[in-house]
Amino acid sequence: MSENTTIVENATCTFCGCVCDDMELTVDLDEKRITKARNACVLGRAWFLEHRHQERPAALIDGREVSVEEAIEEAAQTLVKARFPIIYGLSDTTCEAQRQAVALADFLDGNIDTTTSVCHGPSGIAFQGVGESTATLGEVKNRADLLIYWGGNPAEAHPRHFTRYAVTPKGMFVPNGKKDRTVVLVDVRATPSTPVADIFIKVRPGRDFEVLWALRALVRGKPVDPGIEEVTGVPLATLEDLVERMKNCNFGVLFFGMGLTMTRGRHFNSGALLSLATDLNEFTHFVAKPVRGHGNVTGADNVVSWQTGYPFGVNFNRGYPRFNPGEFTTVDVLARGEADAACIISSDPASNFPRAAIEHLKRIPVITFDPKPTVTSELAHVAFTTATYGINVTGTAYRMDDVPIMLRPAFESPYPSDEELLRAITDRVRELRNG
Amino acid sequence: MLIKLANGTLYDPANGIDGEVRDLYIRDGRIAEPAGDEKVDQEYDLTGKVVMAGAIDLHTHIGGGKVTIARTLLPEDHRGDPMPRSELRRSSCGHVAPGTYYTGYRYAEMGYTAGFEPAVLPANARAAHMEMADIPMIDKGGYAMLGSDDFLLRMMAAGDDQEAINDYVAWTLQATQCIGIKVVNPGGISAFKFNQRSLDLDEEGPHYGQTPREILRRLARAVHELGVTHPLHVHGCNLGVPGNVDTTLRTIAGMEGLPVHLTHIQFHSYGTEGDYGFSSGAAQIAEAVNANPNVSVDVGQILFGQTVTASGDTMQQFANHSHANPSKWVCMDIECDAGCGVVPFRYKDQSFVNALQWAIGLEIFLLVDDPWRVFLTTDHPNGAPFMTYPHLIRLLMDRSFRNDLLATIHPQAQAMTTLASIDREYSLYEIAIMTRAGPARTLGLADYGHLGPGARADITVYTDQPDREAMFERPDYVFKSGELVVRNGEVVKVVWGTTHVTRPEYDRAIEKRLARYFDQYLTMRLDNFTMSDEEITEDGRGSITVHPTQGGSRQ
After folding, report:
1. A20 occurs within a structural domain
2. Top-tier CATH class for B54-404+430-447
């Protein structure tokens, strides 16, 4: 470790959707690495400390090292030639880059979609159907006396969700922290999050909707058949007890994760949960909040919405935005073999998409933007190495509760940012299309 | 480069010009007086055309979390109003919760050159400015929302003096990059979080024990003493509640002469008379406005059709959720700061209540004498989307058109309004006051809203025609900072407006206290909460224009 170090205070961690902004980073400026990340959780420490400067080409075309300018030209040419270019990813980059990505999709008459379509997309669809009673994490910290986690495992996925925002912190109206709160965890199996809960409710896999609907009925004073236990694995008395707690708390929260959105029922599950929270406002103050994964996936929802009117799965083929999940979501346009070029921004679909989608990705020219090599960048026609948001790049990220936070970079990267690259490609695409 | 606008008929109330044929010159983005022998580079013959400054909307929900919530909530709203991309323009979507690009293009195509977002939550100021940064064509600005925030209520409960509150208010303006202070249902958004469902003007709110009256008084005084030009922008208690005309009259009296702007006052002018227990309080409100020169209002006119209501007032949005159409709604508590609620709504001319709301708004417009103190708004999108402004202008300028429509609404609403007996028709001069000169004056935009030498050359040119809706729908030309940006009602050049802010001085000691408070209670660091200038300017499109405070400013 060199002596040339600096401290970055109030830095923001963009690893997960908690977007904690209280990091104190010790930066070795000679070695270009972060040696200490105070206040970071286990995931945040890995995010900061394992970020090393690597000697990699800034741009590759078919695996051959090229200048960034050449790669920009090739990317623009590839996209302009395509009849159905798609842009995907965007949950691990700044809002400023997301803005540019939507502009690029617009000028290409292409398709834009984010990782929302494979995580909380169903929650977005449910939101459009039934609305939402919700709150930011600052309200939860200071007011919530009943916390229900449904289909999520924050202890492993969002370690500071419990300690900074929801369970243990002392708040204005819950001055004793966890002692003043009741924590309920609902899941299909015990997880490392379970020990935090005062009450653990184990649901038979794929039966969340039935449990939620029974709770809605009980909240409204409707009878529920004791046979519910046979179907869901949850005794009626447990549900009745939970309903009493929900109706009698001062400020209740339902947090929910992909255990709900990506299992049988999907947007019906999310819709049932959102409706349950809404219904409870006839008795007390109750809110619901999806627990979002990637650092700026919430920003992607916001940016795409304010520009196009729709949150994800947006298509510009007709020259104006259209929205249809299942038609314009990336897995679907790939699996049906429709896309003929793909721009993948800070995401690795080749490692986690369904096989049919990956097979098609291999058949078409792919352009990737990523700080590190990925399975997707390995198969890319044009691969850009980018600066990392929040570590090398400033900008804005939205916390999972739609609160935007600025980023304070620790040190400079030799690589361009997603925003710079996307801006340059968009400018070139406009020249090619208008010229 | 010198541009000459020749022979136009000018309506420039700030300079007392009422329909005079004059030449106007533009140089370097401003209205200029040419030197004697200066060559004209470009000339527009505006013979027979009406020339006004660019219009300014001082209350329009165009940016910030609740607007994007409304956009996201209503995909069905956008499908009927797509805006295709062109070589020049981005694509976008309308209608009642339009995308940012649509918002900028359509405002400009109607001759507007500035719009002010009236509900910037400090915790979400960054979101508001990011969204407004993606609104092309027009200038922007925001009013920071206080009055249900824990910090202020805590200060008041602790008996902090007015100086300390002034410091906090000034800091808020600086941290949020805003030009004014807004209060929404004072104390009520806080009370809602304690599960209270109403809060009247003299009722002590939960926990902090502060009355809305006292909150209003402290904030109005702070804004006044800091020398902020725009008075406290008030969305009062009991919005939409029958009988709230009394609350509004008591609110006016409670200001004890302090300057105050009462926004979307139509929603606060309801009596309880008649078979439906719902009646017009417009006459009483207009009388109070006429008698109190410290008071200005904007109307928040409703117009019939589909819209969406988006407000910081969670308490009243929750109260109205059963009227949601389509049946879905959002309420959100935000960071011990405030909250927001979004409820889609369809105003129907055959609904007694909606029909009377329509009439009440028009009564207020027509019964307030001084057009400098009443501004043209629909509280976009709460009363109607902003694209309806030309229709609203025709209702004000054309009595027979108004009466024809009046004859079609719910018959009992017709019987409960005095609208048919009001002869007044607004003149072009008065329209220019309420949409240009008036908003610029109340906001302290000295170089805007008029056509005098030195003014920013934001200019709109219309063809004078009897159908005022057609006239205001489609200007011949719109100039933004001297550049031609709209021709025949269509954008011909895309430009980016500035962000208007004001920055009264304050004692920096408040920041230490805030930092401690943030660290103890909030989930964001103070340093990350405050917005820097670069966040608005660095992408090359945005800029900041700082407007001075008035004499009251402390050092």
Report:
1. no
2. alpha beta
